[in-house]
UniProtKB/TrEMBL annotation:
Residues 554-707 form the CCAAT-binding factor domain. GO terms for molecular function: chromatin binding. Belongs to the CBF/MAK21 family. Residues 449-485 form a coiled coil. Its main location: nucleus. GO terms for cellular component: nucleolus. Residues 40-51 have a biased composition (Basic residues). This is Nucleolar complex protein 3 homolog.
Length: 799
């Protein structure tokens, strides 16, 4: 009985899913509409009845005036009262009137509803008179005001549920003689006109509303965080605020609720996936704590599902760009809501990869990675990259890779390259996944019974048995993933990645996705199956020879080919000379401007092609590459020059005989041909590295130190040796360290200190010597002061 009672009180999981606020609102609207239509019909019938009574009264002969009522005002008032309160009782006989009074004493007559009377809804007949039709309608006596029942909360007893009601008197607010149009006019006159608010008052009112909503959201969120199991129902109340209808604060409130629910779900969501209960589990008796936990899990999953549906609907509204009937949110505000919804989905994708509906989130996010809006596309791509980087087990990454591969194929490879660039963040290396679990704690071998009997006493065997039992339990409690399972997931993931790459290489060679494909192949080339090596190298060489690739794409092709050959491809008998020739030819095509993006790939290619394959590289080839790299260092940015000179330093250490380039004397016959694109036949041994002397006067101090170091023969000790922070770093690390992408100079430029002038120059030192003497002579003359006599001038003028 107890289990059944709980089932009746608590709604089941299916009912929670089926319950919809939209359905409840529709039911309420239908009920109100029915009440309004019934009221309109009732008023229309009353008007018809009053009109019929007026017609009957007008046809009836008017009686003579009462001699007592001779005052005209009183007679006019009585006529108005007769017109307004005219009843059918005036035109009845005494027998009919007595019959109506007898019927009025019966309860059945009093409780009868005029709107449900049959004669009112009967069809009109032409021969039936209006008065005869009216006579068939029963009347109600105004003996007492009508009562309206108010339904209260029911009381539950052992016998069952007892409904509770209360009567509420209905006041007659309108008179029967007023028409509906007159009522509306009177209401408009009675109501006070709404005063229009100024802009300042409107902003103050909006601020007050917004503050109230914020406090309400904060109160609900605090209650849920304090006790999630007891207050899980408040998630529904908080989620209902996503349907805010106040146009002043609707957009802001919805954004706040979305962010609040996001943080709540991240905090209260358990670290395991919740599955639906089976029928057997539902029928078994459980404790109150377990029942409470089940109710919490069911409510959490249902509200989380509805929350994801709301986020999806926000994105769809923005995509469709259609206004809803409520017209609360404008078209411009849809984008802001959609961005908040997408950001929330990205956060959930990264934060809850283990929880329910994670695959549904992936299906929503992947199409948005190819969105026209750059901000939304970048947001989704960054979320997927973050998920790939933190996913150790590989299950979540596998789900995302499957969806991306299907999406790219469904769009016929017409997608943004950023989708495929996310593959570069996959954690496929075996060491990174397992170094903290079974690689360090290897499975312990337990002693057999015979070994124990030979080496241990009886008491020691007893203790050993208990110790081994405890260790087995601890190993089971760790629940660490097995190596086989991880390798299986990674293998499946890589298969899907390579299938996507090979499809693009085969069907869409001129697609903008090709650089991302080549970059991905260069990274994962050591994991490709040996069976594909021959075909893949042929495809790469064909792409290079076609001439349709940019220099960056060509570098990726070369890098991929040598990654293949440096790994499992060592067993293959393939001559990579054509790839060396192509790289030697491409060096002078690198961009020397601010982009500078191809140099990093070049440094990686040189490391794989020359340093790691030193045994397969001839001296002529090494000399040609060192000479061309020094020439390239003259016209690139400082960080690129540092990376190239660091590569030359490594090559000079790897191939000691290349120091002949530091000597002016030529070795052997022939002349150096710098324009020849064949490194084996350009006679690089007959030239010198004169570029290093130009680089010693470079404006960057690190370039100067590298150039001086190479001129001295790249010594590891002495005055010309490099500092440890320069010599211990690779070329790619130095390239990144001295990059000026952040508009900063490394090392920082020293500010020039202003020196104080020892002596202040006088003004006459700036003048010419002759002019200076002339000024002194005029200044030295003694002025003769004569008395001023103005009278003589006056006398002269009078004459």
């Amino acid at each position: 009985m107890k289990a059944r009672r709980n089932k009746k009180q608590v709604p089941s999981f299916r009912k929670l899913l089926k319950t919809s606020k939209v359905k409840l609102e529709n039911k309420l609207k239908n009920k109100q509409f029915k009440q309004q239509s019934t009221l309109k019909k009732y008023r229309k019938e009353q008007r018809k009845l009053r009109q019929a009574v007026k017609d009957a009264v007008s046809k009836k002969p008017m009686p003579l005036e009462d001699p007592k009522d001779k005052r005209p005002g009183k007679r006019i008032e009585r006529e108005e009262e007769e017109e307004e309160e005219a009843l059918p009782l005036d035109m009845m006989d005494e027998d009919d009137l007595q019959l109506m009074r007898d019927l009025g004493q019966r309860a059945s007559f009093l409780t009868r509803d005029l709107s449900s009377s049959e004669p009112v809804h009967a069809k009109k007949r032409k021969h039936e008179h209006v008065i005869d039709k009216y006579e068939k309608i029963p009347r109600t006596l105004q003996t007492a005001p009508e009562k309206e029942l108010i339904h209260l909360l029911p009381i539950k007893d052992k016998s069952g549920i007892i409904p509770q009601t209360r009567e509420k008197p209905v006041t007659d607010s309108e008179q029967d003689g007023e028409d509906e149009e007159e009522l509306e006019l009177e209401e408009e006159i009675v109501e006070d006109p709404i005063r229009e608010l100024t802009l300042e008052e409107h902003l103050i009112e909006r601020r007050k509303k917004l503050q109230e909503k914020k406090m309400h959201i904060a109160a609900l969120a605090s209650a849920i965080l304090s006790d999630p199991e007891s207050n899980v129902k408040k998630l529904k109340e908080l989620r209902s605020m996503l349907m805010e209808q106040d146009p002043d604060v609707a957009v802001t409130v919805r954004k706040l609720v979305v962010i609040s629910l996001l943080e709540l779900f991240k905090d209260i969501t358990p670290s395991y996936k919740i599955r639906p209960l089976t029928e057997a589990e539902k029928s078994t008796k459980i404790r109150k704590e377990t029942q409470k936990l089940r109710e919490f899990e069911e409510g959490l999953v249902s509200q989380y599902k509805f929350y994801l549906e709301n986020l999806e609907q926000m994105v769809k509204d923005w995509k469709q760009r259609k206004l809803k009937k409520s017209n609360v949110v404008s078209l411009k505000a849809y984008k802001g809501l959609a961005e908040v919804a997408v950001r929330s989905l990205c956060e959930l994708l990264v934060a809850l990869p283990h929880f329910n509906f994670h695959n549904n989130i992936i299906v929503l996010i992947v199409p948005l990675m190819n969105d026209v809006s750059k901000s939304i596309s970048e947001m989704c791509c960054e979320a997927v990259k973050k998920l790939f980087k933190q996913d150790k087990l590989g299950q979540a990454s596998l789900g995302v890779i499957k969806v991306i591969s299907g999406f790219v194929k469904g769009r016929n490879y017409e997608v943004r390259p950023e989708l495929l660039k996310t593959f570069l963040c996959l954690r496929i290396k075996e060491v990174e996944v397992k170094k903290d679990t079974e690689d360090i704690n290897k499975p312990k071998k337990f002693m057999t019974f015979k070994e124990k009997r030979k080496t241990l006493s009886r008491m020691q065997r007893k203790w050993k048995k208990a110790e081994e039992k405890l260790e087995r339990e601890l190993l089971e409690a760790e629940a660490s993933e097995s190596t086989e399972k991880k390798l299986k997931v990674h293998t499946e993931t890589l298969n899907i990645v390579f299938v996507t790459y090979f499809r693009i290489l085969k069907k869409a060679q001129r697609s903008p996705l090709l650089p991302a494909v080549l970059e991905g192949l260069a990274k994962f080339a050591h994991l490709i199956n040996v069976e594909f090596f021959d075909d893949l190298l042929v495809v790469l060489h064909t792409l290079i020879e076609s001439g349709d690739l940019s220099y960056r794409e060509s570098l990726h092709c070369v890098q991929t080919a040598f990654h293949i050959l440096s790994g499992q491809g060592d067993v293959l008998n393939i001559d990579p000379m054509k790839f060396y020739t192509h790289l030697y030819k491409t060096l002078f095509k690198l961009h020397a401007g601010a982009t500078n993006e191809g140099v990093e790939i070049l440094l990686q290619c040189l490391d794989v092609m020359l340093t790691k394959r030193r045994k397969q590289v001839s001296q002529q080839r090494a000399l040609a590459f060192i000479k061309r790299l020094c020439t390239l260092a003259l016209h690139v940015l400082p960080n690129s020059s540092i990376g190239i000179l660091a590569t030359n330093r490594i090559l000079m250490h790897t191939f000691p005989k290349t120091d002949l380039l530091l000597d002016n004397e030529s070795q052997g016959s022939g002349v150096f041909l710098p324009e020849l694109d064949e490194p084996e036949y350009c006679n690089a041994q007959n030239t010198a590295l004169w570029e290093l002397h130009a680089l010693r006067r470079h404006y960057h101090p690190t370039v100067q130190s590298f150039a001086a170091h190479l001129i001295a023969g790249a010594p590891s000790e002495g005055s010309q040796a490099l500092k440890p922070e320069l010599s211990r770093r690779s070329a790619a690390e130095l390239f990144q360290t001295y990059s000026m992408g952040a508009m900063t100079f490394n090392p920082p430029v020293q500010s020039s200190s202003s020196k104080k002038k020892s002596e202040v120059l006088q003004g006459d030192l700036f003048l010419n010597e002759d002019l200076n003497q002339l000024i002194k002579r005029h200044c030295g003359e003694v002025a003769t002061h004569l008395p001023l006599d103005f009278a003589k001038y006056l006398k002269t003028s009078l004459r």
